[in-house]
Amino acid sequence: MTARGIRTDGDAEDLDVEEVLALVNEDNGHRASGDHAPAPAPQPQGARKPDRDGPDRRHGDNPDRHHRATPWPEAREIAAHAALKAARAARRAPASVPLDAALGLTLAAPLTALTDLPSFDTSAMDGWAVAGPGPWAVREEGVLAGQAEPETLTDGEAVRIATGARIPLDTTAVLRSEHGRTDTKGQLHATREIQHGQDIRPRGQECRKGDQLIPVGTLVTPAVLGLAAAAGYDTVTAVPRPRVEVLVLGDELLTEGLPHDGLIRDALGPMLPPWLRALGAEVTAVRRLGDDAKALHKALTKSGADLIVTTGGTAAGPVDHVHPTLERIGAELLVDGVKVRPGHPMLLARIKEDQHLVGLPGNPLAAVSGLLTLAEPLLRTLGARPAPEPYTMPLKDAAHGHPYDTRLIPVVLRGDHAVPLHYQGPAMLRGMAAADAVAVVPPGGARAGQEAELLDLPWATAGIEVCFT
Fold first, then answer.
1. Among 208, 205, 224, which Cα is nearest to 216's?
2. Which residues contact 10 (CB under 8 A, 6 or more apart)?
3. Rounded CA gap, 426 and 69, in Å?
4. How far is CA 222 from CA 107, 219, 225, 251, in A?
5. CB-count exposure of residue 43 (10 Å: 0-12, 13-18, 19+)
6. What is the pLDDT of residues 18-67, one digit of tens each?
7. Which of 190, 181, 184, 179 lies closest to 133 in space, CA to CA?
8. What is the mean pLDDT of the chain?
9. Does the structure show a pLDDT above 50 at 350?
10. Is the dihedral of CA 57, 63, 64, 66 positive or negative?
């Protein structure tokens, strides 16, 4: 079993991060990660008739064009390389971001110490600062954190001191509160031997001014924010979040209440924005357009987002307007159908050099498949976020597969095994709602005990991302 983690080696996936960081820093006159060239992008698949996946008008099955769909691994590569081209075209400059807004971004400049840490000798414990051998006469006034430099100690003197307080000059050591006692004359005695410098954090113990604390390309975590603040930063230089607009299509969708009269509740409108934020995006708008070709055309031509995500309408039904609208505006289809279940009719199109559209199937679990297949690598690359390290776990139970396509199924992690969940149909979210990860099942399925590649869900690996606003 392979451990989970973040890639730090020099494989092809890392080139995404390096290339984007180089692009966003180019305008500042330097390249962030050297002159690495990205691997050659797979060739776009070209325009094709729409494919289907599932039982309804948005998700049928068309065997005539199944063989022309893009293999699942290749579709993910195409999405990542499309983002590289978009980053090159957009010349998105690094942003100076306040610390409270930087969580989950990628550093576009190294974090260099602005001061020594600590910037002065401090006490590591509550107790007494003592000078010379004991016993010691204790001063009346103690030393608290945040106070100016205290008076110098002389041999035989001690002063009460709090954790984090500045150490008086000529202090020998800090005697912990639990290791000292005072006699009836007020003299302080040590109850155990103390060493010179004990429990004193010397200036510069953690770093010296000018030391590099965090390199370019690091994902900003809560710990990175804390270190930046301790080092004197109010802002960090980071790759800005890709802007995403969500277009919810379908006249049959309700926004409240129970399903009735052939109408169903919209699951994707509530689910997609937080999921996209978890993938590092800034969701600028969620628009409900119904099945209106004119409204879709207007939305696509007026959008200023880096990525447009549509739901439904990717098949060839009478009100499936995504393909005709893309053709009308001259968009280039990079991926038109993927050999994956659920989610077969997903698509990726380049609208402008710096703008793309991911068309998700309308069925909820099929839409999740589209997010993981096309939106995740595209957004990760645009945001210069590090690629997750692939890992595998043995399956607890057999997983049924498709004869020719990759299958993505929700799983829970129990000990050293991944347990496939039920409710795996294209329209079902019950399994995904309980999942820890998604298993990549090869064509033909996988037997019990067989190692399967797993895709982590963003909140399972770094719950911070789901809090993005």
1. 224
2. none
3. 18
4. 13, 10, 5, 42
5. exposed
6. 666 665 555 444 333 333 333 334 444 433 333 334 333 333 444 444 55
7. 190
8. 84
9. yes
10. positive
